[in-house]
Design brief:
Layout (H helix, E strand, L loop, with lengths): L21 E9 L2 E7 L4 H12 L8 E5 L3 E4 L21 E2 L13 E4 L12 E2 L3 E4 L8 H10 L6 H10 L11 E7 L1 H8 L15 E10 L3 H4 L8
Antiparallel strand pairs: 1-2, 1-10, 2-9, 3-4, 4-8, 5-7, 6-8, 6-9
């Protein structure tokens, strides 16, 4: 599955550990409302890269250029800061790729945040885009039992019962499991994500009305608060 990312260049973001016992939170202010997401400590390369880009203002003014109901919403193309009507975006990037951090126990359930990349044919190492990310919408496109069983066969074994229940009841994108790096989770503002996913789109799945990221603020919380913010299926987050 290619998530509309091209024109990559060499490079690697530095990874600096957060203070012990802390987890980073990114608050995206959009022209449709706020989206708050946890950044996983299990994927420090992607976590720290996102923090770096947020703090330098990279995402300010960028659009959610690709929206597919029941699947994902995607952003990260710097060309969209000066977007023109009717133009299909998604081909530009920050200019480097990230080593993959595809972790057991992280699944494409509703609300998860992943790094887009080129497909395996062009990118067998599964290197991630340096800036493109997507949020799994899930709701409205439930995964059936057959799909879940097929994914279990391709992965390491049976899914946790809570993960399975989430897929069957809330949907998601299980066909991406084990192929893309997941590095975040939306714990507040999924109603905003749903509203963005419901926008009328044109060519290239671009919303007809621009949906802009106004700002991204980074906060830190104590790890003990994760139990208050996460659903049970995120015990491996």
């Amino acid at each position: 599955m290619i998530l509309w990312v091209f024109n990559f260049y060499g490079g690697q973001a530095e990874s600096k550990p957060l203070p012990k016992g802390k987890t980073a939170v990114a608050v995206l202010k959009t022209n449709r409302g706020e989206i708050s997401m946890l950044l996983s400590n299990r994927t420090p390369i992607h976590r720290d890269n996102f923090i770096k880009l947020a703090r330098t203002g990279f995402y300010e003014g960028i659009l959610f250029h690709r929206v597919i109901p029941g699947f994902v919403i995607q952003a990260g193309d710097p060309e969209t800061k000066e977007a023109r009507p009717g133009v299909v975006y998604g081909s530009e990037d920050v200019g480097y790729r990230l080593n993959p951090e595809i972790m057991d126990g992280l699944y494409h359930i509703r609300g998860m945040v992943g790094a887009a990349r080129e497909g395996d044919a062009e990118n067998p190492e599964r290197l991630s885009s340096g800036s493109h990310f997507y949020i799994v919408v899930g709701y409205g496109k439930e995964a059936d039992e057959t799909m879940v069983q097929k994914m279990e066969q391709k992965l390491t074994g049976p899914m946790d019962s809570v993960i399975r229940k989430s897929y069957l009841e809330m949907g998601g994108a299980p066909h991406l499991d084990g192929h893309y790096t997941l590095f975040g989770y939306v714990f507040k503002g999924m109603e905003v994500v749903d509203a963005i996913a419901a926008e009328t789109t044109g060519e290239g799945d671009r919303p007809l009305q621009d949906i802009q990221i106004v700002s991204v603020k980074i906060k830190k919380i104590k790890n003990k608060k994760l139990k208050e913010l996460c659903y049970p299926e995120l015990k491996n987050f």
